[in-house]
Design a protein that fits this description.
This protein has 432 residues and is an alpha+beta fold. It is built from six helices and 16 strands. It has a seven-stranded antiparallel sheet with strand order 4-5-16-7-12-13-14. The radius of gyration is 49 Å and the shape is elongated. The protein starts with a helix and ends in a 6-residue tail after the last strand.
Length: 432
């Protein structure tokens, strides 16, 4: 026999089911149902498996019992075997024995019920598949829409920032013109004072050429004029550095925020660090600390633990009401004995004025700095300082030396009689 009993039985069942399959789903679904039937017959239809050889006999005209040579007429469901009349011995009298055709119909009904269950399951899966395909199309459409919307929104932002940039330039020009006007007025006043002095000097020269009696009579009036001119002191005008807020400045900088901590091994013995290594203040008593090459000696400073050689980095420092402090970066050099490797701004208060100075210049501010942002751009070799409270630019230093790693630098500076004590505190990133 070329075909196995199982394959012949499967073919026979498929042939009996084909009309229903053709009527329900067409030829393509027949192939799917055929696949499902072949996968599930062995596990879901034990009775069908037991009937295979006997249904095969009926298909081929072989319907005799191997034991008695009689025609197979019955099927025992308990023993799962086909029986002839002689097989109906006492051993099967209490069993559920059915005529062979009845057992086959029962198996057929079982298979049809199984097919209907599979059909419902397939319909549900097909519905789910259709739903997922619709969602996939919706997601693709939504993605394209979001992309177009994002381009539109970024265009609006670019336009807004362009307008803000233009307005910022106008504000700076107006502030500069106002400052220049005040300087010109002061220059005019000083020039007038110089002219008066020159006129007085000419009058003195004329007195020197007078006769003795005339000279003696003219001196009192000349001396009075001299006293008036000498007592007049030119008052330098308060011309603050123009500060204008920059829209979106801090939000942009915060994308490069770094969690900076202080390095206790670099701290000067007079500096006291907080337990979380986020704050530093001056201490009048020199601490007994281990001596090492990393520790500052002559410079009252401390470094951050982090080292930077590339990329963009940003951190903020709360300086509060301190009247003098220094912030910036420092080379990760071995010696800590001078300012040579420090690139920082030093802020201080003098009288009613607020100033910050770098190695190149000193600039007067219109207001004190309470919170400072430091942005290091290694690619551009640039360090920039910001007034975070007023969201404005303070100073930018370019062409910094990047030989070796750079580290954040902090100094509360040595206090003096009129200075305000306090700490420098590194700010943590706050949720935007």
């Amino acid at each position: 026999m070329n075909e196995t009993a199982e394959s012949v039985f499967s073919r026979a069942v498929r042939e009996s089911l084909k009309p229903q399959l053709v009527q329900s789903a067409g030829e393509s679904f027949i192939r799917q149902a055929d696949l499902l039937l072949r996968r599930n017959l062995q596990t879901q239809c034990t009775t069908g498996k037991m009937l295979q050889p006997h249904l095969l006999q009926k298909e081929l005209g072989l319907s005799t019992c191997d034991q008695h040579g009689e025609r197979v007429m019955f099927f025992c469901e308990e023993d799962h075997r086909a029986l002839c009349d002689s097989c109906l011995a006492p051993e099967h009298k209490d069993h559920q024995v059915l005529p062979l055709e009845t057992a086959a119909d029962k198996c057929k009904n079982t298979l049809l019920e199984m097919w209907r269950i599979l059909q419902k399951k397939e319909e549900k899966l097909q519905t789910a598949l259709d739903t997922m395909r619709r969602r996939e199309a919706q997601f693709t459409e939504r993605s394209d829409t979001l992309k177009e919307s994002a381009n539109s929104e970024y265009g609006k932002i670019q336009q807004f920032l362009g307008d803000e940039k233009y307005e910022y330039g106008i504000r700076v020009v107006k502030a500069s013109r106002s400052n220049l006007f005040q300087l010109e007025l002061y220059e005019l006043k000083v020039f007038q004072e110089i002219e008066k002095l020159q006129q007085m000097m000419l009058e003195v020269d004329e007195n020197l050429d007078m006769m003795p009696l005339e000279m003696i009579q003219a001196v009192p009036d000349t001396l009075k004029k001299k006293e008036e001119l000498v007592l007049q002191r030119p008052e330098l005008p308060f011309i603050p550095w123009p500060i204008c807020s920059i829209t979106g400045m801090q939000e942009f900088l915060m994308s490069f925020h770094r969690d900076i901590t202080l390095d206790p091994e670099s701290a000067h013995p007079h500096l006291i660090l907080s337990e979380d290594l986020k704050s530093v203040q001056y201490g009048s008593i020199c601490q007994d600390l281990p001596d090492n090459k990393k520790r500052f000696d002559s410079v009252l400073g401390v470094l951050g633990t982090q080292k930077f050689t590339s990329g963009k980095h940003y951190w903020e420092v709360e300086v509060g009401d301190k009247t003098e402090w220094a912030l910036g970066i420092c080379k990760d050099s071995v010696g800590r004995f001078s300012w040579e490797d420090v690139m920082a701004i030093t802020a201080f208060t003098s009288g009613n004025g607020y100033f910050f100075c770098t190695s190149e210049k000193t600039i007067q501010l219109s207001r004190p700095l309470h919170k400072v942002g430091i942005f290091l751009d290694c690619e551009k070799q640039q360090i920039t300082f910001y007034d975070i409270v007023y969201r404005s630019l303070v100073n930018t230093k370019s062409n910094i030396d990047l030989e070796g790693p750079l580290r954040p630098y902090f100094s509360p500076c040595l206090p003096y009689d009129k200075s305000t004590p306090g700490s420098l505190t590194i700010c943590t990133k706050t949720p935007q």
